[in-house]
Design brief:
alpha/beta; TIM Barrel; 3 domains; 20 strands; 15% strand; binds 1-O-alpha-D-glucopyranosyl-D-fructose
Length: 544
């Protein structure tokens, strides 16, 4: 089974990528319009987040129809054009399948509401009275995970927004419907799939209160999840295609299971532990600077662990749910360029398949919003209230959002220095970051020293050096709090990757035999030969 080891995926959030009709929302023709830019970057696949008909309570992760294009984003013809034009450039499309839940606007849920037993069995309904919630589980977006429907005398489960009702995977009819959706898209020429929170699909047999947490331990990597995935992949006819599962609060052991090729589940998995190293006490809404030691330990554990179990990681810092990496782990100011390049190097040289999130390749930063009116994300708006109920002032809540809001990753793509960063001729649905006159694609594509040009090299190197895609990995300097370092090797070649995670100089003693090795890539002109690394410096050294 193909592992897609030498491929690079680029994630597009269509709503914020490129608007061709001036309505302030990005669209599918906007993606087609930028294919040459993506071809120039060198990526192999585009993962498009959902553009299906949706009330957009959660920006399309609330799907009302899995087989159509929301008119906001264009038409089915626009999508077919995009598939065809991408294919001409050797680029495949991956769609985002939100199969843990549907929008309550979906026909299935509407029929359930209308009283059809068949469709009530598609969801997780519990008979009851309004005064007695089935369990104390908490929604990932805040508040209870159950909603009462007085008309039916039933509660339904929603692990996310109240408009996102969890599907009942125990029901074989649901599983058959979902496999059918995959076949539909495969026949349209879609080359792969990303599965949203797919490790949450298997719920427990008995629903009970969680006295130790928010309920997640009862449904995360649930009892039948591996069997359901195997069945979906087989019935959907997608074995051998590129697939990635988004795994919420998962374990290494389960991710080996999800991605070991012998099991015919998924090609690779996203896990998020390394993106919680700045959560104080594990709480996303409590600020703390990143714990670099924890970050290093997590990379070591997951990289070496997945290797030992023959699993495969998706490599990433950024997506549409995360603040921008350069703002979070790098330096937006003095070392903006150096730190953005170092962060790209750190993940691209690891064992796994790299994902570049739109704008990361030009070093886009957080949004720098200063008022609540600028935010759109349902989670951010909910937590703005929750944080104040917990005793924070409005100003403190805003400071937390400025660092933690998902909208930081959703601001319009910065194409050039013209109005609204060249994203739209209208009014953008979400305001652009204020720094687009300086940080934009137009300023970088032709500049050989730009972040964009550096990312091009990262992508190209993966194709040139089989050791990057296929080599073994081992971490070094495990006790050094500043340096993230690892060795990659195969029969012919050895690489040594050393990254200074800090804004100060970091001394290094190279392992024996590495003095004088050639610098394959670096972010300072004279790298590789000194006894210390400059702020956010990275070296990729090569022997053989
Ligand atoms: O996200 C799943 C998820 O749990 C998070 O990344 C979430 O944003 C975070 O835990 C909140 O603190 C996926 C999608 O990527 C996200 O955009 C959707 O909102 C969510 O599923 C529901 O479909």
């Amino acid at each position: 089974m193909a592992n897609f080891q030498d491929k690079v995926v680029y994630q597009i959030y269509p709503k914020s990528f490129c608007d061709t009709d001036g309505d302030g929302l990005g669209d599918l023709p906007g993606v087609t319009a930028k294919l040459d830019y993506l071809k120039d970057l060198g990526v192999d696949y585009l993962w498009l987040t959902p553009f299906f008909p949706s009330p957009q309570r959660d920006n399309g992760y609330d799907v009302a129809d899995y087989r159509a294009v929301d008119p906001r984003f264009g038409t089915m013809e626009d999508l077919e054009t995009l598939i065809r034009e991408a294919d001409k450039r050797g680029i495949g499309l991956m769609l985002d399948m939100v199969f843990n839940h549907t929008s309550t606007d979906h026909e299935w849920f509407q029929k359930a509401l209308a009283g059809y037993k068949k469709y009530q069995d598609y969801y997780i309904f519990k008979d009851g009275t309004p005064d007695k919630i089935p369990t104390n589980w908490v929604s990932k977006f805040g508040g209870p995970a159950w909603e009462y429907l007085p008309g039916l005398g039933k509660w339904y489960l929603h692990l996310f927004d109240v408009s996102q009702a969890d599907l009942n995977w125990e029901n074989p009819a649901v599983r058959a419907e979902l496999a059918d959706i995959l076949r539909f898209w495969r026949e349209k020429g879609i080359k792969g799939f990303r599965f949203d929170v797919v490790n949450l699909i298997s719920k427990p047999e008995v629903f009970e209160d969680d006295h130790e947490g928010d309920g997640r331990r009862f449904y995360t990597d649930g009892r039948n999840v591996h069997r359901y995935l195997q069945e979906l992949v087989a019935a959907g006819g997608i074995d051998g295609m590129i697939t990635v599962g988004e795994m919420s609060s998962t374990s290494l052991e389960n991710c080996i299971g999800y991605t070991n090729p012998d099991r015919h589940e998924l090609t690779m998995s996203f896990s998020f532990h390394h993106l919680k190293v700045d959560y104080k006490n594990g709480d996303k809404w409590s600020l703390m600077p990143p714990d670099r030691m924890a970050l290093k330990n997590l990379f070591t554990l997951w990289q070496e662990g997945m290797q030992a179990g023959h699993g495969w990681n998706a490599l990433f810092w950024c997506n549409h749910d995360q603040p921008r990496a350069v703002s979070r782990f790098g330096d937006e100011g003095k070392y903006w360029k150096e730190s953005a390049k170092m962060l790209g190097t750190a993940t691209h040289m690891m064992r796994g398949t790299p994902y570049i999130y739109q704008g990361e390749e030009i070093g886009m930063t957080n949004a720098h919003y200063t008022s609540i009116g600028q935010y759109r994300d349902v989670e951010s708006l909910n937590y703005y209230q929750i944080l104040q109920q917990q005793g924070k002032t409005a100003a403190e809540a805003l400071e937390i959002l400025a660092q933690r809001s998902r909208d930081n990753g959703r601001t319009p793509m910065q194409w050039d220095g013209t109005a609204h960063a060249g994203f739209t001729t209208g009014t953008p649905w979400l305001g652009e970051a204020d720094n687009y006159p300086a940080i934009n694609a137009a300023a970088q594509v032709k500049d050989p020293d730009s972040i964009f040009s550096y990312y091009k090299q990262l992508v190209a190197l993966r194709k040139q050096e089989p050791v990057i895609s296929g080599g073994q990995i081992q971490f070094l300097y495990k006790d050094d709090p500043d340096l993230l370092a690892y060795r990659r090797w195969n029969e012919d070649t050895q690489l040594l990757v050393v990254c200074n995670l800090t804004g100060h100089d970091a001394p290094v003693t190279l392992p024996e035999g590495w003095a004088g090795a050639g610098l394959l890539l670096g972010n300072y002109p004279d790298g590789g030969s000194r006894t210390s690394l400059r702020p956010y410096e990275c070296w990729v050294l090569k022997k053989g």
